[in-house]
Design a protein that fits this description.
The complex is a heterodimer of chains A (about 210) and B (about 190).
Chain A (H helix, E strand, L loop, with lengths): L2 E4 L4 H8 L9 E3 L14 E4 L5 H4 L3 H9 L3 E4 L14 E3 L17 E2 L21 E3 L6 E5 L5 E6 L6 E5 L3 H6 L4 H18 L6
Parallel strand pairs in A: 1-2, 1-3, 3-4, 4-10
Antiparallel strand pairs in A: 5-7, 6-8, 8-9, 9-10
Chain B lengths: L6 H5 L13 H5 L3 E4 L5 H4 L3 H9 L3 E5 L14 E2 L10 E3 L16 E2 L2 E2 L5 E2 L7 E6 L4 E8 L5 E5 L11 H15 L5
Parallel strand pairs in B: 1-2, 2-10
Antiparallel strand pairs in B: 3-7, 4-8, 5-6, 8-9, 9-10
C-alpha cells in the first residue's frame, strides 16, 4: 500500500512534502482539485497537511467519506476547518500564545495522554510542544493521544465515527517546519512520519 | 493579508482582495499592482505565468512575500534558507533606501517581543540588476530586493511573512502597508 498526500502548494507544503528530508514518506502527491481523478482506495493513508485551505477540500468531502467508509485512514494536521470535509469533528479554537516560552520555566501544558500508544515510541512530550490553536471534543470511543493544559484533546484517533480511521490534530508542524522555524515541529515530523509509514502503511522503516 | 491595514484602500476601491482560486486573467489585465501573500499556492499560480508576464510587461508592480520554490519567471531562483542561523544572522541592515522603507529604522523590524527571526530567515536569489534593499547578518543575506525588469514592470521580493506584519510598532506597520499600496499604485516613486 501507499501514502497519498494532499498538496495545496504553499512553500511550506512544498518544503515538507517534496524536500529530501521527508519526501520518501509520501508516495503520491495530489492537488486538492485533482482528487476526483484518484482512486483513494488504493492508498493506505491520505495525509492532509496543516493549513490546507478547507474550501479546496470541501467539494471532495463525499469522496473522503467514501474512502473512510471502506476502511481508509486519513491523517489531518492543524489550522484548517476539518469539519467541512471530515465527519465527526467538533473543534474549539483558542487564542494562540506565541510567547509563552519567553517566561522562564513556563509550561505550555501539552501532555501525552496515552503513553502506551506506539506513536510515543518515536515522540516525546517536548516534540508536541510549540503552541496551541485549539482543542477537540472527540466522539465517545475515540483514543486521545495528547491534551492541552486544560486536559482538552489536541491529538486523537477516531475509529468510531466511520469504519475507517481519522487521526486528527490541531498542531501545525508542516507550516513551521516548512518555514525553517521552530525545531520542535521538525522533531515532531521526524517521529510522526516514520510512525505513519510503519504503523499506518504497514511498511518497515529503513 | 492583514486586512485592517488595507481597509481604506479596499473601501476606496483602490485595492481588492481576490482568493487565489477565484483569480482570472482579467484580474491581472486590469491591475497596476499585485500583492501575493506568503501563503500563495505556488503550484497553482503557475497557470497565470502568461498573465503575470503581461502584467509586468505593461509596467505593473508586484510585491512578493515568501519563499520562492516554484519560480514563475525564468529570472527568479529558488529560496535559500540561512543554514543553522544564530542571532547575529538576523541582524538587519538597510543598503538601499527604497521609498517603501525610506526613513524607517530597519532595526524596528528586527524583532517581535525581543525575538528575532520573524522578518526573514533566508533569501530569494536576486536576478541580475536587482537592487538589494535590506540584508540579514554578516553574510548580508538579501532578504529584500527590488528588480526593475528589463522588459517592464518591477518586482519587490520579501523572503518572509508580510513585512508590514513585522516588528512591534503598530504605526510603522501601518506606514509600511500604506506605502506598499502607494508604491503599487504608482503614487510613491
Amino acid at each position: 500500500m501507499t501514502i497519498l498526500a494532499i498538496h495545496p502548494g504553499a512553500y511550506y507544503h512544498i518544503e515538507t512534502l517534496e524536500a529530501p528530508r521527508y519526501a520518501h514518506h509520501f508516495d503520491v502527491l495530489v492537488r486538492p482539485e485533482d482528487l476526483p481523478s484518484v482512486d483513494l482506495g488504493k492508498h493506505a493513508v491520505v495525509f492532509i497537511p496543516c493549513r490546507t485551505p478547507a474550501d479546496r477540500l470541501a467539494p471532495h468531502a463525499a469522496q473522503l467519506r467514501a474512502y473512510l467508509d471502506q476502511g481508509g485512514t486519513i491523517v489531518a494536521t492543524g489550522e484548517t476547518n476539518w469539519d467541512v470535509f471530515l465527519p465527526g469533528i467538533n473543534f474549539t479554537p483558542q487564542p494562540t500564545n506565541w510567547w509563552w516560552w519567553l517566561t522562564p520555566g513556563a509550561d505550555l501544558g501539552v501532555r501525552v495522554a496515552s503513553a502506551g500508544h506506539s506513536l510515543f515510541r518515536r515522540l516525546g512530550q517536548d516534540d508536541l510542544t510549540w503552541h496551541l490553536h485549539g482543542w477537540f471534543d472527540p466522539p465517545d470511543g475515540a483514543e486521545v493521544l495528547a491534551v492541552n493544559g486544560e486536559g482538552k484533546p489536541i491529538l486523537y484517533v477516531d475509529e468510531v465515527t466511520t469504519p475507517g480511521r481519522m487521526i486528527i490534530t490541531s498542531l501545525d508542524p508542516c507550516f513551521h517546519h516548512g518555514s525553517h522555524f521552530m525545531p520542535a515541529t521538525t522533531r515532531f515530523l521526524d517521529g510522526f512520519l516514520p510512525w505513519m509509514r510503519e504503523e499506518l502503511d504497514g511498511a518497515q522503516t529503513k | 493579508m492583514t486586512a485592517p491595514a488595507f481597509a481604506d484602500a479596499i473601501s476606496s476601491g483602490l485595492m481588492k482582495v481576490v482568493r487565489e482560486m477565484d483569480l482570472t486573467g482579467e484580474d491581472f489585465a486590469t491591475a497596476r499592482g499585485l500583492i501575493t501573500t506568503t501563503h500563495l499556492d505556488q503550484i497553482g499560480f503557475q497557470r497565470f505565468a502568461p498573465d503575470v508576464t503581461a502584467f509586468l510587461d505593461r509596467g505593473g508592480r508586484w510585491i512578493y512575500h515568501g519563499h520562492i520554490l516554484r519560480p514563475i519567471l525564468a529570472e527568479l531562483g529558488i529560496y535559500r534558507s540561512i543554514p543553522n542561523p544564530k542571532r547575529p544572522d538576523f541582524v538587519q541592515a538597510r543598503l538601499h533606501d527604497h521609498p517603501i522603507f525610506a526613513g524607517i529604522d530597519q532595526k524596528m523590524l528586527e524583532t517581535n517581543r525581543g525575538v528575532a527571526g520573524f522578518y526573514g530567515r533566508g533569501h530569494n536569489p536576486p536576478p541580475p540588476g536587482a537592487v538589494v534593499i535590506n540584508v540579514l547578518g554578516p553574510a548580508q543575506t538579501p532578504v529584500d530586493w527590488v528588480w526593475a525588469r528589463p522588459q517592464g514592470g518591477e518586482l519587490l521580493s520579501h523572503a518572509g511573512n508580510e513585512f508590514w506584519g513585522c516588528g512591534d510598532d503598530p504605526e510603522i506597520r501601518k506606514q509600511l502597508a500604506g506605502r506598499a499600496v502607494a508604491w503599487l499604485a504608482g503614487e510613491l516613486n
